[in-house]
Amino acid sequence: MTVHDRDNNHLTTNSDMTAQERKREAIVAAAADLFLDSGYSGVTLDAVISRVGGSKRTLYAYFGDKDGLFAAIVNRLCEEIVTPLTRLVLVGRPLREALGATAQTFFDVLLAPRTLALHRLVVAEATRAPEAARTFFLAAPTTSYRCLAEYFKWASEVGIVTPGDPQQRSRIFLDALTADFQLRCLLGLLDSPTQMERDERMNETIAIFMKGIAAS
Amino acid sequence: MTVHDRDNNHLTTNSDMTAQERKREAIVAAAADLFLDSGYSGVTLDAVISRVGGSKRTLYAYFGDKDGLFAAIVNRLCEEIVTPLTRLVLVGRPLREALGATAQTFFDVLLAPRTLALHRLVVAEATRAPEAARTFFLAAPTTSYRCLAEYFKWASEVGIVTPGDPQQRSRIFLDALTADFQLRCLLGLLDSPTQMERDERMNETIAIFMKGIAAS
DNA sequence: GTCTATAAAAGGATAGAC
DNA sequence: GTCTATCCTTTTATAGAC
User: Fold this and answer.
1) What is the pTM of this model?
2) Interatomic CA distance for residues B10 and B2, integer angstroms
């Protein structure tokens, strides 16, 4: 597997790109859609090319082989997902408000169809593509955990919550909130939870957590 | 896909089986190992046969096609997993003890290599094989949730915990406990959590839950 | 870079002989 | 039921002409 790691420029505008770079971006975008829809083995390189135009030669020149293309689309999708999470600012806000804002953001991000499809894809290919699994984990769950953990750290320092491991609490809260919905969506048993279902889960989780860790 | 649904007799002893039934069981057992190791597309029917002996004709006669074989091994594995969960008796026990026993059992069952491999397999093939996804969900998580939910229902009736939706609480507790470990194992980033890691997660989760729902 | 053609291999499904 | 052989399709990967 020859990985061609030159995908750090997808945030530049189209006008900054050379024709080659635009082509490369177009291939990655088309391949990402196809992989998300059909899984690794469900995608043929012919299908990628027939969607984006051009020749398979170009594809092999840029990405080496199918695994190289796969690595490129995982990197791309992970950055897409992480962006909204990095915008969430929690430190300084009261407990209930911080937990509520976290819940809204994470429901939206983690249950988005593209996130779920990427999740399914990466789990399925974890053995074949361990690097992709690593990239995904460092992007989605780790970024999430860290954001909330920073808040808990601050909150225990200023006495809003009792002392306790902020990372542990962060994982427990986010998992309690999302894991059940996530699994049911991954299995195709639930399209997307309704707002009422989300609210019930959120309220119950926050209620337990408030009593569980708030300083009295 | 022709599904031949005759796999309700794997609990009978070997001596009760006809030669055909033994053969069928042997194929299912071998195929299960291979699918768990290599995923759906990673398994060839030749590989199944070369492991168990016999002819591909027999395989096609019993299972119709590859999808039929897949359905059979998922049913088989789900029943394997569920068995230890149905033995867990919680009603009547004090809160901390019930939560602790639940944690031990579910760590053992959900993080077992075969459970994780099945989980990965079923998620990967959820689109191709929705029935398998359904079977898996009804077996593993649903059985788990119900067991603990029954306890919470009883516990609120006798006044051990505050009133509240037992199903919701059950999901929140089990997800908080296992989701993080589960994901890291599925992605191949964690072999299996150490006893210390399990204890830390368990203690923190139980601590939050005790304060969160125990009647004062 | 693009288009068409093709080599090379794999794997699902089937058939004949026993 | 078993064993061997084979059809047929799909798909990765490469090559030649422009």
Assistant:
1) 0.92
2) 20
